[in-house]
Design a protein that fits this description.
Uridine Diphospho-n-acetylenolpyruvylglucosamine Reductase, domain 2, four-stranded antiparallel beta sheet, 25% strand, globular, binds flavin-adenine dinucleotide, binds uridine-diphosphate-2(N-acetylglucosaminyl) butyric acid
């Protein structure tokens, strides 16, 4: 196990976030040790806004055994979802098509129940293994409370690995479905972001509301409400968490939206 001081901006897709102690755990013994003091779990950092001051807790990242995977067996929570989506398509295994384009780790995808209107990860899970209060627990997806961007995993639990429930389908059919998902994502920006900032309110789309209210293109320093999609805040280069937060506050003065992002550290 390696422990080092890092800047979390180097570990988040938004490219924002201050210092922390990173614990790179490779096996269960490492994980047990790393969780002996207050901690947070870092996946691929694609749904995170981290404060410029960083966080005092240990930041645990899953590697080694936890990043190993076998499509038809156990898939480590530290593995990257896009690789698994591609491998499934290649092998004619269907169920992950709707997750195309989500830059998650498997553990982060489960924790957030990542998905699109074409499907969520919860629908493709056969079994989830997680570490909680010193023990490994295995459950089926029905035992958790999966919903829109939520998993119902107990507070502090660490997803360690999962098994998937995929169906055999012709690769051409899978690829056609993936093309439709890709098409639906065409309006999303390619710049650094953490995906959609806000959850969609029932029956509407946060991006549409932010667009209608005229926030697209609004800037605070290096942070900008994407001109392409209103629910994305992009880092044009060197944005601080404070600047990103200022945009969130501006939007929320007008629109009662709930954050989708996980926020780490202190914000006003
Ligand atoms: P992180 O951002 O690292 O962490 C998110 C949360 O999960 C944190 O609370 C963290 O503590 C927790 N976590 C991470 N790993 C574990 C673990 N092993 N055990 C327990 N908790 C854990 N999301 C969608 O749902 N649909 C989309 O279409 C989508 N598109 C996106 C497009 C872009 C360009 C980007 C940048 C993001 C997008 N997202 C989307 C958001 C993001 O990819 C998802 O929320 C994803 O599930 C986050 O996974 P992660 O591994 O990056 O988690
Ligand atoms: N819209 C606008 N202006 C904008 C953006 C969107 O008018 O600036 C309109 C679109 O024209 C469309 C509606 O709003 O009528 C919905 O937009 P879109 O199809 O882009 O989907 P979304 O609801 O904004 C959701 C997820 C995305 C996911 C896509 C694809 C949420 C918060 N967002 O976006 O997930 O990729 O569907 O299915 O649920 C994420 O969660 O981080 C994320 C990116």
């Amino acid at each position: 196990m390696e422990v080092k001081r890092v800047h979390l901006k180097d570990f988040t897709t938004l490219g924002v976030g201050g210092p922390a102690e990173l614990w790179l755990v490779e096996n269960l013994d490492d994980l047990a040790r790393a969780t002996e003091a207050p901690y947070r779990i870092l996946g691929n950092g694609s749904n995170l806004l981290v404060a410029d001051e960083g966080v005092p807790e240990r930041v645990i990242k899953l590697g080694g055994e936890f990043a190993a995977w076998d499509l038809d067996g156990w898939i480590g929570a530290g593995a990257l979802l896009p690789q698994i989506v591609q491998e499934a398509a290649k092998r004619g295994r269907s169920g992950l098509e709707g997750l195309l384009g989500i830059p998650a780790s498997v553990g982060g995808a489960v924790r957030m129940n990542a998905g699109t209107r074409f499907g969520t990860i919860a629908e493709a899970l056969a079994e989830i293994e997680y570490f909680h209060e010193g023990r490994l627990i295995r459950v089926g997806p029905e035992a958790l409370d999966f919903g829109y961007r939520k998993s119902g995993l107990p507070e502090g639990s660490v997803v360690t690995r999962v098994r998937l429930d995929l169906k055999n389908r012709p690769s051409a059919e899978i690829l056609a479905r993936m093309r439709r998902v890709d098409q639906a994502r065409k309006g999303q920006p390619k710049r650094k972001s953490a995906g959609c900032a806000f959850k969609n309110p029932p029956g509407d789309a946060a991006g549409r509301l932010i667009d209608l209210a005229g926030f697209k293109g609004m800037r605070r320093g290096g942070a900008m409400v994407s001109t392409e999609h209103g629910n994305f805040i992009v880092n044009l280069g060197g944005a601080s968490a404070k600047e990103v937060w200022a945009l969130i506050e501006e939007i929320r003065k007008t629109l009662p939206l709930e954050l989708e992002w996980e926020v780490w550290g202190r914000f006003p």
